[in-house]
Amino acid sequence: MVGQAQAVLAVALQAYIAIDTDGRVKGWNPAAERIFGHTAAQACDRDVADLIIPAGFRDAHRAGLARLAAGAPGCRLGQQLQLSALHRDGHEFPIELTLTVTEEPGGRMFHAFAHDITTARRAARFADVEAALALGLAEADSSTVAAHRVVDALGVKMGWPVVELWLVDDQRQMLTCAARHTGPGWRLGDFALAELEPGVGLPGRVCAGGVPRWIPDLGSDGVSLRSVSAARVGLRVAVGVPLSTGRNTLGALCVYGDRVEDPEDIVLGLLGGLAAHVGQYLERRRAEELTVELARTKDEFLAMVTHELRNPLAVIASTLSMFGEELDELTSEQQREYLHVIARSSQRLSVMADDLLDLASLESGNLATDPVDTDLCAIIGDAVQACTASAAAKQLTVTVRLPHRLDLHADPNRLRQVADNLLSNAIKYTPAGGTITITAGLDDTARTIVWSVADTGIGIPRTERPRLFRRFYRASTALGKRIPGTGLGLVITRTIVERHHGAITLAEHTGPGTTFVVRLPAADA
Ligand code: ADP
């Protein structure tokens, strides 16, 4: 029977530990070896308190044991207890334990059966965070309130000292910290920034790459100055996950801690799931905000569209009427000129109709793209060729600096639309005699194509730039000079670029003019 019991204990999944009245280990099965990290040989005859009981609980354990050894009934015997245990490597973890006692010839013997409940506890904690977050989002009546609920739910329930939610602005030129949770007693100093540029710090890197990042040791993360300030205030590890909606990265959810309690993949799994919820919420809210904005601008929009339609139509009608009246007297050169005016106006109408159609698909979320292996240089070259006449009409100097080829996987027709829009804007918004410079090439990593279209034109005031990619938005510089336009081109351009996993930004500019920069993944990337 004894041999049989030994055999059972040897294969049991629960740790079995026997101790005598002095707390000396007398039994230690293989599961105990696995759970606590000490072999049976290492544990045998040692004081169990030194082996598996965290320092803070040792006195209480010894006092309790002394009472039991003296024959006290022991109200905790036979009950399931949840306790903190110490592993040989020094980390503490939760266990569930049942204690029984037998009377042996040499005195009382205590038998404990225990198992590690880290996973179960974690699952309960994660479920708790998810529930708090879902409730927080459901009850939030604005994105700002939602952001605060998210960071607080994570900070409080998970015990992370710093949790931040960063959002990218409309133009993708700046990241703003929408909410930050700071645990009690933490002083963040210059770590607590309100804004970051894309690519800078953990949030910037997560947003730029669109993938989660784990920094196991902030102190030795030479890449970022912000990691250095994090380490200075006592933070050791950091994890960031993108807030994505499948198509776009809207921001990043980042947590910072002084130690790692859960394995990397598990933390990333939890945060990734939460970030997906938050991303969907933010996208829904943005759509709602857009609808409100759209409703507000509807009258403006109708006035604008009517005006924009009426202009070319009026030109066509009056030209046709003159054409009809003067037909007999017109030279063939003049006839050609009239036809040219009609063609230009109808071209404007058809561009507008296309833009409105694209806008409609964009609203419903299905702007079609048909990617193939293609060469951006050829696309840009064709677009430049097509606008030679209109640039020459304004005596604009067009400089093109392109390599031989730039291969990428993309929809050539859509990229041509991007090229046409950026070039036609540059021509439209640059007064006669100006310069337009188009460059493209691979960046240092050779994974990203950087394509810029710069002009020396009327420019866009800095304060208006964050609104530039909104539907129907027209800068005061364009409106002031009464240059016709609809404010649709850039929205469509940005959507196309993002569908190709790229980004479009307005570059900082010295001197007059505007520079748009498009970044697209190169073929090898
Ligand atoms: P549109 O040109 O039809 O108005 P877009 O969406 O292409 O529409 O551009 C939106 C606004 O951005 C323009 O109305 C103009 O104010 C500004 N803009 C775009 N490109 C330039 C540029 N190259 N220089 C100055 N302003 C520009």
UniProtKB/TrEMBL annotation:
Top-level EC class, please? transferase
Q: Where in the cell is it found?
A: Cell membrane
Spell out the reaction equation it catalyses. Answer: ATP + protein L-histidine = ADP + protein N-phospho-L-histidine
Q: For this protein, what is the EC number?
A: 2.7.13.3
Q: Look up keyword Cell membrane and say if it applies.
A: no
Q: What is its main location?
A: membrane
**Transferase is among the record's keywords:** yes
What are the GO BP annotations of this UniProt entry?
regulation of DNA-templated transcription
- Provide the alphabetized UniProt keywords: Kinase, Phosphoprotein, Transferase, Two-component regulatory system
Q: Where is the Histidine kinase domain?
A: 304-524
Q: Name one GO cellular component term.
A: plasma membrane
PAS domain: which residues?
A: 16-54
Q: What GO molecular functions are on record for this protein?
A: phosphorelay sensor kinase activity
Question: Which SMART domains does the protein's record reference?
Answer: HATPase_c, HisKA, PAS
Q: Which PANTHER family match?
A: HISTIDINE KINASE 1, TWO-COMPONENT HISTIDINE KINASE
* Name assigned to this protein: histidine kinase
